Amino acid sequence: MRNRVSIYHLIAFWLGTQFIVAGVCFHLPDFIAAKKVHFCMQCMPMSTLMLCGMGLILTGIPLAAYGLFPVRTDEKKNLTAEYQLHTLDNARLSWAHWRLLIVLAVALVVDVMKPATLGFVMPGMMHEYGITKSTVSLLSLFALIGTTIGSILWGIMGDHLGRRSSILLASLIFISTGICGTMPAFKWNLFMCFFMGMSAGGLLPIVFALLAEMSPARHRGWLLVLMGGVGSAGGYLAASGAAAWLEPIFSWRILWLLNLPTGLLVILLSRFIPESPRFLLHEGRVDEAQNSLARFGIELIPVPADAPREVLTHSTEFKQLFRKPYLALTLTVCLYGLAWGLVNWGFLNWLPSVMRDYLHMDGKIANHLLAKSALFALPGCVVVAWLYGFWSSKKTMAVFAVATAVVLTGFATFKPGDSQALFSVLTVALLVCLSGMIAMLSPYAADLYPTKLRASGGGVSASSSKAGGIVGPVAIAQVMTIFPGLTVPALAVGIPLLVAAGALWLNGKETSGKRLEELQNTVNPSLLAQPKKI
Fold first, then answer.
1. Predicted confidence band at 396 (pLDDT cuts at 50, 70, 90)?
2. Any idea of the CA torsion for 82, 86, 88, 94, to the nearest 10 degrees?
3. How far is CA 414 from CA 360, 363, 407, 422, 426, in A?
4. CA dist 266 to 112, 217, 524, Å?
5. What is the pLDDT averaged over residues 411-423?
6. Which of 40, 122, 329, 429 has the smallest CB count inside 10 Å?
7. Alpha-carbon gap, residue 143 to 10, rounded angstroms
């Protein structure tokens, strides 16, 4: 069948999926039984049903992975140079492109939603477990260590085993970590949130690598940034909305249990996600590349025998990211991601607690305010996408880093008793700037690297944004203990943004409107073999 989406061992994959879903569902009776005490499960013993559920999950994950990734012993020949990719780059946007964009945007919202939930579950955890701010900040630390490692591991997996299959496996592990919402002790939450972070961190680089390789060149920049902005702002909106709507009814635990339906949504929509034809050609899988392109009404056309061909002879090893000619670019995007992570995970994550403890806002009012701010921030994604796609990718990224630093200066001057409307304006501006920065980071990284390093390079850049969260929450918690309020924390995370903007201005490459192969040759002209007659 021409447009059929293949899973190599269908029975193994779906059996593993059912084991994982059943394993999560086996934890729900204990959660429901705790309704009388407002779902407080602290120190409750794990039931036999919960232990059986864990066993099913541990069995289901490797079974599903076996179904997705066949063992290959033969060496695949890179056939990229044998076919014309201009047909893909010059194609018109069709319904198939928009459908893929919508599906991957949903995946990004789900992906961003879970780390964004950390700031909303921490106050409830502090109350239920009776722990301090410094202790509960370990939750962000473990989760973000997981996302940092997961971004790199899944990026490498996406380059070697395929974009689509890696997305599916990350979604299944994401579903399994819904059991975070039933853990009776804080230490169990730390353990499970590490794996939640690994799965959530894995989606981001692969999604952008796939979409970059499927989008027409002239539309790639603004499409990817728009999706990144919608995913980032939408994820925070979903997290804050769920906290405002569901947390008062089901406690903070429901925010983790939402991993089950949201992860399943990505699995069900996966039939609309094709494999990257560029990846397939690089693996020598021509028939599958033709089937993938047929979804978009595009034919795979061979290069004429007498036409000149360009053959890239670059290394495809992961370590090449940290060698010339990619070293300066890798360090630049990582610094940009690190600066964003310090603000997003170190400052924004503590904002709900600051609103309650320092500004003396009611918890429900604080959650609703953040939800509305995230909603108002969504239109800003359109502006970011237009500037990135039609003005300059490099300059837009630098401008938004500086703008974020300016907004943080506004927070630094805010005091209790000041206008709540002003605080709302600052919050909206911060979310717009942060959404814009993270929306551009992964698309920019995807443009800089060749096919067999694209997901890995995106994974490294994504991990840098999470690395800021490894030190950010703990550092900000300590700073807030010594310097209550917003002044010192806001200024502390604003300075790295200015440094990142300067590094990008000096070392960054312009990517807007250029073909992926053209960008690779611009970044790495010394590795381009001379065209030869065949």
1. very high
2. -150
3. 14, 19, 11, 9, 10
4. 13, 26, 36
5. 76
6. 40
7. 31
Query: Any alpha helices (H) in 117-185, and if so which ranges?
Result: 118-129, 133-161, 163-176
**Angle CA 458–459–462, to nearest 5:** 85
What is the Cα 274 distance to its own chain's centre? 19
Structure tokens at 41: 């499960």
Report the alpha-carbon distance of residue 172 to residue 7 in Å, rounded: 15
Measure the CA–CA gap between 442 and 449, rounded to whole angstroms.
Answer: 11
What pLDDT is attached to residue 429? 86
**What is the C-alpha separation between 133 and 499, in angstroms, rounded?**
29
DSSP state of 511: -
Q: How far apart (Å, rounded) are the C-alpha atoms in residues 452 and 108?
A: 22
Cβ proximity of 464 and 199 under 8 Å = no
- Arithmetic mean of pLDDT, 488-513: 89
Tokens of 357: 């403890």
Q: How does 37-54 read in b/e, with b if 16+ C-beta sit within 10 Å?
A: eebbbeebebeeebeebb
Token pair recorded at residue 132 = 């301090």
Contact between 430 and 169 under an 8 Å Cβ cutoff? The reply is: no
Alpha-carbon distance of 13 to 10, in angstroms, equals: 5
Contact (Cβ atoms closer than 8 angstroms) between residue 251 and residue 125? no
| Residue 302, Cβ density class (10 Å: 0-12 exposed, 13-18 middle, ≥19 buried) | exposed
DSSP label at residue 297: T
Model confidence pLDDT, tens digit, residues 97-150: 999 989 998 888 888 887 778 778 888 888 888 888 778 878 877 887 888 888
**Could you give the CA distance from residue 192 to residue 189 in angstroms, rounded to a whole number?**
5
Contacts of 360 (CB under 8 A, 6+ apart): 416
**Is residue 71 within 8 Å of 17, Cβ to Cβ?**
no
- Spacing of C-alpha 501 from chain mean position: 22
- Residue 14 burial (C-beta neighbours within 10 Å; 0-12, 13-18, 19+): middle
Encoded amino acid at 137, one letter: S
pLDDT single digits (tens) 288-303? 888 888 888 888 877 7
Among 502, 490, 333, residue whose Cα is nearest residue 427 = 490
